[in-house]
Amino acid sequence: MVAEHELSAAAAQRMEALLPELLGTLRVRRRRARRRRAAVAAALLVLPALLSIPGRSAPVDSSREPVPAALARVPAAPAWVELRDDPSVLARCEVATVVRSAWFVGDDEVQALLLAAEKPAGLVRSGSRVFVSAAALDPWPSLAP
Q1: Bridge partner residues of 126 (DSSP)
Q2: I need a surface site. Which of 15, 46, 47, 102 has the fewest CB within 10 A?
Q3: What is the largest CA-CA distance in the chain?
Q4: pLDDT value, residue 59
Q5: Phi and psi angles of residue 101, each rounded to the nearest 5 degrees, phi first
Q6: For 75-92, what is each residue's pLDDT tens digit?
Q7: Is 15 exposed, middle or buried (0-12, 13-18, 19+ CB in 10 A)?
Q8: Which residues pair with 124 in a beta bridge?
Q9: pLDDT for residue 27
């Protein structure tokens, strides 16, 4: 707050007149916030009780035959299986990678390919990196007009 000696007499009077109104507004806001919190808490307590009311289940289709008891019992299985040193697991997850030399071309070859496809020259060098500008590339098939 501003120190009193810096305020004029009229400003100090206005500040004194506004203080009760400001405090009243703050009290009203505080009451509203308390009511809101109480309403949310009550809703959170009542909602599960409403959802658990018996007699609100879906109707049972009695035209189906019941499952035999032998099929209804599922043998207990562990929640997970620990694999220790099983090399077949790694072999099943291995992804064969293919590297073709045609995928790697030099700057001159890229420029020649762009010119052959009647595209604008699109190599941009920035420091030690080389980028191909978007104008030189075809749009993604889903974005093509």
Answers
A1: 129
A2: 102
A3: 94
A4: 60
A5: -70, -25
A6: 677 777 776 777 777 777
A7: middle
A8: 131
A9: 94
Contact between 120 and 135 (Cβ < 8 Å): yes
What's residue 74's pLDDT? 67
Give the global pTM: 0.30
* pLDDT for residue 127 is more than 70: yes
Say how far residue 44 (Cα) sits from the centre of its chain. 25
Structural tokens at position 131: 């980028």
Instruction: List residues bridging with 117 in a β-sheet.
Output: none
- DSSP letters spanning the chain: ---GGGS-HHHHHHHHHHHHHHHHHHHHHHHHHHHHHHHHHHHHHHHHHHHT-TT-SPPP-TTSPPPPHHHHPPPP--S-----S-HHHHHHH-------GGG---HHHHHHHHHHTT----EEEETTEEEE-GGGSPPPGGG--
